[in-house]
Write a structure and sequence with these properties.
single chain; alpha/beta; Rossmann fold; Pantoate--beta-alanine Ligase, Chain: A,domain 2; 2 domains; six-stranded parallel β-sheet; about 20% strand; binds pantoate
Length: about 290
């Protein structure tokens, strides 16, 4: 496994690569969720590249950029053990030689103005900035992203289609703890108790799924807004000390929203457990 820190050294290595190059962009603090992305790349591609870069432009002022877990030694070990060929670990100056220049794809209002785009203005602009810079450096054939960041995946698909990147984007289902808690680098901020309580997120989303299935069976229309409010209250009740940012039910394909639960719905949740903001989502059908 090669560890490369500069764009120049990466480009030189890239020139030598033949066959399909798979890419897993990460911010490090790797967990089993990342390992599933890596496994998929290794399965689909001849070479797997992982990048580790905590991208400052996707954090807003006051968010956790400074304290975001940085565990490079462990990450490199995991990459090596899981068949990664090249790890790209650039410094900020390699990625953003001129901090003042803000480049990036203009995300459609339909995707940028909802869910985390509404709660964290500028976040996805930072994500598309870094992903496009990394795509230009790595020049992958396939890039793998997790469905836990479902909106991010939709935005990256939009960018790749609009800018004709010619990169196949593969989404991988969310990996969970045995308790149901979605794996996330930010779970490291949670206390044992908070982790235990946060497992209720999946239980509550599952409850909505069951309700949706029953309503479909009985041919009953379920008002989306009512379900969202009820779900938010349930979450805050079951996870004392939590504060819901949003609970929304949207179409799984284009993230549009209807008044009544319709086919192909997906529930999206963002909430603070203590200081930690967690997100999750689940396909609920109906
Ligand atoms: O999903 C993430 O970890 C980040 O948003 C990404 C895609 C690596 C860009 O920094």
């Amino acid at each position: 496994m090669r560890i490369l820190e500069t764009v120049e050294s990466f480009r030189a290595a890239r020139k030598e690569l033949t066959g399909k190059v798979g890419f897993v962009p990460t911010m490090g603090a790797l967990h089993r969720g990342h390992l599933e992305l890596i496994k998929k790349s290794v399965e689909l591609c001849d070479t797997t590249v992982v990048s580790i870069f905590v991208n400052p432009t996707q954090f807003r002022a006051g968010e956790d950029f400074e304290k975001y877990p940085r565990t490079l030694e462990d990450d490199l070990k995991l990459c090596e053990e899981n068949g990664v060929d090249i790890v790209f670990v650039p410094k900020k100056t390699e990625i953003y030689p001129n901090e003042k220049i803000r480049i990036g794809f203009t995300i459609s209002e339909e995707l940028s103005g909802i869910l985390c785009g509404a709660s964290r203005p500028g976040h996805f602009e930072g994500v598309v900035q870094i992903v496009s810079v990394l795509f230009n450096i790595v020049a992958p054939v396939v890039a793998i992203f997790g469905e836990k960041d479902y909106q991010q995946l939709a935005i990256i698909r939009e960018m790749v289609a609009a800018l004709n990147y010619g990169v196949e984007i593969v989404g991988i289902p969310t990996v969970r703890e045995a308790t149901g808690l979605a794996l996330s680098s930010r779970n490291r901020y949670l206390s044992i108790k908070e982790k235990e309580l946060a497992a209720n997120i999946l239980k509550v989303m599952d409850g909505v799924k069951v309700k949706a299935e029953e309503a479909r069976f009985d041919r009953r229309a379920l008002p989306v807004e009512f379900i969202e409010k009820e779900t938010a209250s349930k979450l805050e009740f079951l996870i004392p000390g939590s504060k819901v940012d949003y609970v929304e039910i949207r179409n799984t394909n284009d993230l549009t929203k209807g008044r009544f639960l319709a086919r192909d719905s997906r529930i999206f949740v963002a909430l603070f457990v203590g200081e930690t903001r967690l997100i999750d989502n689940l396909y609920i059908g109906a």
